[in-house]
Amino acid sequence: MGNDGGHSHSAAPRSLLLRTAGVVRQAAPPAVSGGKAQPAAPHSCRAGRSPQAAGLAVGQGRCAEFDELHAKIRKSMVRIRTVRPNHAIAVFPGTIILSGNKFCYIIAHKQAFLGGPGTKYEIILPDNQGSTIELNIKDVKMTKSIVVFFIFNEFHDKIVEAVDFNEAQVLVNEEVYTLCFHERAVLPSFLAKGRVNLAVQYQFIHDCSGHLFAAYGSPVFNANGFFAGITYKECGALVALDIESVKKILWAVHPETENQELHDVLLNLKAKGEALQRISSF
Q: With contact defined as beta carbons under 8 Å apart, do 4 and 247 qualify?
């Protein structure tokens, strides 16, 4: 399969830190965050409980962990809503790969922006109010299958957070998740769990088929909630571009970053976002 198209610094802001997760095997090792291993979470069962009570506690603990993972990922996602002249509406996922006080940088699937003349494009933020920003199609940078773009707004109270990157190659049988949106924007998002079926250079196949449109930009996260790739096609199975491919896409869209490590690419884009924000505020 072909390609579609850092190193962390302690002084960098949290949204720019690239975190390489531990390999997920039968028993997942501690995640690596900012260069320091985090201790494993304590077991949710106390000694002396009955097997039934212990099993219930484990189940509740897993549900809580799943909810925490969903909440973490949800802050890094926007809905891209397209409204065509005939009032047909579609909703696609957008993944925030970089954020600042007044801007975000988003990666999504090209299919979201093929509505044709007269189509209206809206970005719905992950807040309780469903705050919406209208997007000009001219601001969207397109590649063969993937697009990237900036949005500008006042992002208060940590409404959005950029993803943490998993730069390690995903492994066959590794547990992964995608976040999916319902066609109706008022309905909540949900996580679909699956595993990596095949992993090669630049791409991997997974079976997180939680939604009809999962092939159109659903992000893939590992069990620690780190961004591992973006789904871009379906050919009997869901195929995702890995982080190396994402980096190459950014190189193509921003040639001045070519051959830079991902951390440096993001620093470059952060400076560009801040400059564009100052211009747009006049």
A: no
